């Protein structure tokens, strides 16, 4: 792991870069699968499932019997943990409900907004040896609160044609409508275009590998909306002499075990914290079961020593981390000056793991610097807002001349005429 001491500002640009893949190189492959699924529906999805997941499927949808079997297989301890996390996620996201207030912008002119759920949404949940059942909660719970009519979930099956029971249990608890046995590009295609079994949706959410990311990006160009651009996961830790090196090391390693392309960085103005953190990372790494993957990710990680707190904050806002952990004596003061971050974890006892699972905030967050312009998934992600306006006869007479002048100066005569006809004494036919 590289340690960079006192870099000049002109060197920051290189330090802000993440491990990233240009998924546009995969677009031709993605288009081929899209065309096949559009033309052949379920048959194409099943064929790709057999090719990539080695699963021979008779039915793409999970049955009620399979849901019941999953509930029997999930340990009671995990069931309770999922229910506790769900309750916290519900509480936090329900508090985000929008109530549109009617505003009289001028006498006789009233404007307001109405929040309406996106009717059909699709959730992609990766499978594999470490199934992300927590992501089911992060996406399905706010979708239910928003009032989405149909929540479709797709996840790749194993070789026996089954989806991991924890994913199915979480989906059942959260209120998912339909669950499809499909992964990769074909799952995105099925939700984007619809098949005999999997309904077409209006917006697709969820993480995935580079092929899923490429599929989501391509489909978002003209067919359906997506949650946000996705990339490898990342964490930045801000620490001072008051920080616990073991805590910092554990946060570094919990990020690194996501995958070999993950990145963790420590940004500090304290030379004294660096050596203890490196030692703690080395000691804890040896005890991890995913040591090989985690160790590779540490090659992308670095420690950056800056001159002072001002530089630390400036660098952080330029980096715009997905996850930001602030372990300093004055973490509240620093947090108030953070402008770009996906989710922020304050103080020694707030690990990233809490937000990943059960504190209540959402763990689907912008990566690769997109936190400069994107929010993480929240209730608004599943909602569209419709604006309304109502103008009385008095209102159009008061506001009409303003509209007429503006329309005339934009040389839009029909616009001007539509207002003039409604005004008392307009005199135009």
Shape: globular
CATH class of the largest domain: Alpha Beta
Mean of residue pLDDT values:
95
Approximately what portion of the residues adopt beta-strand conformation?
A: 15-25%
The CATH superfamily of the largest domain is identified as Nitrogenase molybdenum iron protein domain
What is the domain tally? 3
User: What is the name of the CATH architecture of the largest domain?
Assistant: 3-Layer(aba) Sandwich
Q: Helical region count?
A: 17
CATH fold-level assignment of the largest domain: Rossmann fold
Write up this protein.
The strands form three sheets. This protein has a six-stranded parallel β-sheet, sandwiched between helices. It is α/β, with parallel strands linked by helices and 429 residues long. The protein has helices at residues 12-15, 27-40, 42-53, 64-73, 76-94, 133-146, 165-174, 184-193, 210-219, 245-256, 274-285, 291-298, 309-319, 331-335, 352-357, 393-409, 413-420; strands at 2-5, 103-106, 109-117, 120-124, 150-155, 178-181, 203-205, 225-226, 234-239, 263-268, 302-305, 323-327, 343-346, 383-391. The protein folds into three domains: 2-20 and 231-360, Rossmann fold; 23-100 and 115-226, Nitrogenase molybdenum iron protein domain (Rossmann fold, 3-Layer(aba) Sandwich); 392-429. The longest helix is centred in the N-terminal third of the chain and has 19 residues, at 76-94. Helix 4 (64-73) crosses helix 7 (165-174). 42% of the residues lie in helices and 17% in strands.
């Amino acid at each position: 792991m590289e340690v960079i001491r006192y870099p000049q500002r002109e060197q920051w640009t290189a330090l802000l870069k993440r491990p990233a893949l240009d998924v546009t190189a995969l677009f031709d492959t993605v288009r081929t699968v899209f065309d096949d699924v559009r033309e052949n529906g379920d048959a194409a999805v099943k064929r790709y499932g057999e090719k990539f997941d080695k699963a021979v499927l008779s039915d793409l949808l999970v049955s009620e019997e399979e849901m019941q079997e999953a509930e029997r297989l999930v340990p009671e301890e995990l069931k309770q943990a999922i229910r506790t996390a769900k309750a916290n996620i519900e509480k936090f996201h329900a508090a985000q409900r929008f109530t549109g207030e009617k505003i009289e912008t001028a006498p006789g002119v009233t404007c307001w907004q109405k929040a309406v759920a996106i009717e059909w949404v699709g959730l992609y949940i990766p499978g594999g040896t470490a199934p992300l059942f927590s992501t089911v909660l992060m996406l399905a719970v706010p979708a239910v609160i928003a009032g989405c009519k149909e929540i479709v979930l797709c996840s790749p099956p194993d070789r026996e044609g089954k989806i991991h029971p924890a994913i199915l249990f979480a989906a059942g608890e959260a209120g998912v409508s339909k669950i499809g046995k499909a992964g990769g590009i074909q799952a995105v295609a099925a939700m984007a275009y619809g098949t005999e079994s999997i309904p077409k949706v209006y917006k697709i959410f969820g993480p995935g590998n580079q092929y899923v990311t490429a599929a989501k990006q391509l489909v978002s160009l003209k067919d359906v909306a997506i949650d946000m651009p996705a990339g490898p996961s990342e964490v930045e830790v801000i620490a001072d002499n008051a920080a616990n090196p073991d805590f910092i090391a554990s946060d570094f390693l919990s990020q690194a075990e996501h995958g070999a392309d993950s990145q963790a960085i420590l940004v500090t103005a304290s030379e004294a914290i660096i050596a203890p953190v490196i030692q703690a990372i080395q000691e804890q790494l040896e005890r991890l079961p995913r040591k090989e993957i985690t160790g590779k990710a540490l090659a992308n990680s670095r420690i950056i020593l800056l001159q002072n707190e001002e530089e630390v904050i400036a660098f952080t806002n330029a980096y715009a981390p997905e996850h930001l952990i602030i372990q300093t004596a004055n973490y509240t003061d620093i947090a108030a000056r953070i402008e770009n971050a996906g989710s922020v974890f304050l103080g020694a006892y707030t690990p990233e793991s809490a937000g990943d699972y059960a504190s209540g905030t959402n763990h689907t967050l912008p990566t690769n610097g997109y936190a400069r312009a994107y929010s993480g998934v929240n209730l608004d992600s599943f909602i569209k807002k419709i604006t309304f306006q109502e103008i009385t006869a008095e209102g159009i007479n008061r506001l009409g001349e303003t509209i007429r002048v503006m329309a005339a100066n934009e040389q839009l005569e029909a616009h001007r005429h539509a207002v003039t006809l409604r005004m008392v004494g307009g005199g135009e036919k």
